[in-house]
Task: inverse folding
DNA sequence: CTGACCTTTCAGTCTTTTCTGAAAACAGGA
DNA sequence: TCCTGTTTTCAGAAAAGACTGAAAGGTCAG
């Protein structure tokens, strides 16, 4: 195996264990990612020096994350595995799965706890803290769900903009009829164009809600 | 201890282990978060039923993540620990630390590997894949660094906008002089106002680079 | 300097997770 | 049907990680 691939795979293994995933699984994934062609389980086992059964477990785990897909190659009875070809697809899947496994259960617990009647002042305070966390997590995940639905091209444009996004927000706030409730818009002095009115309408779906 | 707090702490422990962090550490953090006042290590140990030394280790870990801060209360020699009061601060710290521990080392490995001369066609292909991953990670982290620098208020506005952000991007693209190179702007038919020109200038720092 | 009070360290134990080889299960061809 | 090549399961071995108590190290008041 190429020393390039080897170094990459080794690193991914380390990182994997710093994350929730175990070393083996990380390495299998890295191998599939770099090799760029579907591999059968026994080749993976040989390349990485793991037992065949270990690879089987690892692939099962990766499949449960939807990070590898199974396919059959003509003339070969063995199952072959590969990573999605589009790297943005990988990002989307990762985000979705992590949300499903880590965020959703937490939100659900928080909601349950917030439904309980506080028995005393202390519990009221605790619920306050939990509410704050709940709202924050919900805001972040809603946003990420929304953004993930964008076309890749739109997404990259947004990302390349970086901190420059703030100028767009300022623009939005400066347009009358569009400003958020927090910063009341100052009315433009001059008469305005029809074109701009239409845009205004378009923006009115802003999700802003009551202040916490 | 309130059953509310207890359920929350227990859940956080579980989640912690699904993440890189261990159960103990997760529970200590959760306890500090809900109690909303600085606690000394021995109270934590008692509340959670861990040994004093275990708590000491856990707090050390949390401090290394900058997720708890140490303080002295007047009239008490013991060290007390608490979480940052502002929940947005917590988000920022978490993002920074994860970047520092997980992303930066990976980028560094990728860069090293990309500097190596490919020995054959295979290695060239591998480097192609690595480059793709490197660019993606860099784009995402640059963006998150930028966005993290925003004021909390700006940040929440951005988040609340959700998928609506796309309309702002469309607006940007529709303004002549501002459009991305990808979608050449169609010139407005009518004469335009000075106001809009100024805005245009403001947007020109867009980070767009050459197409991959 | 001493004693009271706190915190940290660490060797050893206990628990959990990972990994393996052997066996079972499965799928398709003859 | 049986045979062959394949994947999955699983009990136990091995490794990694978490946790503890005891001891050492700090710090401060008097």
Result:
């Amino acid at each position: 195996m190429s020393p390039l691939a080897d170094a990459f795979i080794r690193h991914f293994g380390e990182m994997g264990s710093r994350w929730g995933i175990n070393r083996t699984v990380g390495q299998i994934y890295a191998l599939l990612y770099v090799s760029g062609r579907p591999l059968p389980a026994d080749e993976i086992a040989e390349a990485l020096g793991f037992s065949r059964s270990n690879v089987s477990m690892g692939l099962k785990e990766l499949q449960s994350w939807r990070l590898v897909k199974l396919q059959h190659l003509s003339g070969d009875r063995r199952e072959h595995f590969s990573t999605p070809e589009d790297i943005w697809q990988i990002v989307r899947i990762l985000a979705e799965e992590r949300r499903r496994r880590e965020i959703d259960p937490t939100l659900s617990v928080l909601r349950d706890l917030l439904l309980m009647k506080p028995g005393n002042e202390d519990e009221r305070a605790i619920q306050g803290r939990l509410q704050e966390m709940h709202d924050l997590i919900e805001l972040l995940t809603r946003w990420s769900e929304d953004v993930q639905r964008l076309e890749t091209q739109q997404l990259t444009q947004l990302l390349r903009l970086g901190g420059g996004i703030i100028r767009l927000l300022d623009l939005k706030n400066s347009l009358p009829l569009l400003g958020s409730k927090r910063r009341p818009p100052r009315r433009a002095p001059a008469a305005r164009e029809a074109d701009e009115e239409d845009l205004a309408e378009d923006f009115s779906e802003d999700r802003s809600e009551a202040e916490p």
